[in-house]
Amino acid sequence: MSPIQATEEVVDIVSRLIQFDTSNTGVPETTVGEADCARWVQEQLAEVGYATEYVESGMPGRANVFARLEGADRQRGALLIHAHLDVVPAQAEDWSVHPFSGAIRDGYIWGRGAIDMKDMAGMALALARQFKRDGTVPPRDIVFAFLADEEAGGTLGSQWLVKNRPELFDGISEAVGEVGGFSLTVDRPDGTVRRLYLVETAEKGLAWMRLTCNATAGHGSFLHSDNAVTEIAAAVARIGAHRFPLVMTESVSEFLTALSEETGLDFSPETPDLETALFKIGNLARIVGATLRDTANPTMLSAGYKANVIPQQAEAVIDCRVLPGRQKEFEATIDELIGPNITREWITHLDAYETTFDGHLVDAMNDAVVAHDENGRTVPYMLSGGTDAKAFAKLGIRCFGFAPLQLPPELDFAALFHGVDERVPVESILFGTKVLEHFLHHC
């Protein structure tokens, strides 16, 4: 009997991973399930002969699993394939199926984490098992890592591991993770279509800022010239209304150039109202448009404890996403907007990241895509959010997002991230597994 191939078990593996409720609330005491899921992953790896390492990152239950497959050239830098096992919470009453059922129906695998990112975790695990069973020797060492806490910035996951266990990443020169490799179907001038597979080469910085205003407390019936609520509300309104300048980074510029080449439309920086023009490519424009400029979105306000008391303090939280190379200018703008009576501090601050779209690994990605889709082409792009790549970049590891999926053109992929009825097409998983296999054979 021939060994089981990854495509024969990957759908069941993805479904099983979803059935572990690994909801990350952002509060360690209420985040559960990561350890159970990680132990199951560890068992699947050990079953086929891997020596695994189970690591808890900073707190009991924040579980990570590592396994290494030795390659032909041990002198080359190793390749890290990483996937996080935690997911954002889901309210079951809002869903068509239970979010942790892993249901397979209507051609989809349903559930929280289906695309963020138990699809990639399942593909990586299925291929790791196949390679071990087959005795596959890849071109260089491959390190498979299944990680905790990405959905809370990796504080008790990748960030902790990089700071406290850097030896786990010794010899790794490049890494591949989530939110890249998915297809965007565009119409060409000759009536044909091209599927662009977006490889993540950059991420905006992720920073959550707390604003605080201290003023004079007093009775609500008196006149007050220094009301903390008024000042913080005015500052928040100024920030929320501010439009940061359009900045063309290398990754975004290359993406827009490729988009123009394939569609015959003008997506150059000089295009009037470029953000609106981008909606010609569909719903993915929400992600791409957010990478044209810095953003600062107010998300939380807190002040007062009684209707007739002017509070001494008022606070706000701003979700800041900053383009590579823009941190200094961004902070200067924020300081102008908030004014002299308000202080700011970073609650979370993770740097932006960008690498170039070139080299052997990029060529291997494109070759793998084209081998399974003759109408495919890989292009770079920037993610408006963040991934565990932010942690690994601190070690000098060159990071990419490449979790290949060929998607139906009509599927609103962007809306599924953290959305209700998150799901991934079965055919997309099978396609992605084949592409990832080709890629790992030539990495």
UniProtKB/TrEMBL annotation:
Keyword Zinc belongs to the record: yes
Against InterPro entries, the record matches this protein to:
ArgE/DapE_CS, Bact_exopeptidase_dim_dom, Peptidase_M20, Peptidase_M20_dimer, Peptidase_M20A
| Cross-referenced SUPFAM superfamilies | Bacterial exopeptidase dimerisation domain (SSF55031), Zn-dependent exopeptidases (SSF53187)
Keywords annotated in UniProt: Hydrolase, Metal-binding, Zinc
Zinc as a keyword? yes
Peptidase M20 dimerisation domain segment(s): 201-333
Cofactor (UniProt): Zn(2+)
What the record says about family reads:
Belongs to the peptidase M20A family.
**NCBIfam families membership:** PRK07906.1
Kindly provide the name given to this protein in its UniProt entry. M20/M25/M40 family metallo-hydrolase
Q: Origin organism of this chain? A: Gordonia liuliyuniae
Organismal lineage: Bacteria, Bacillati, Actinomycetota, Actinomycetes, Mycobacteriales
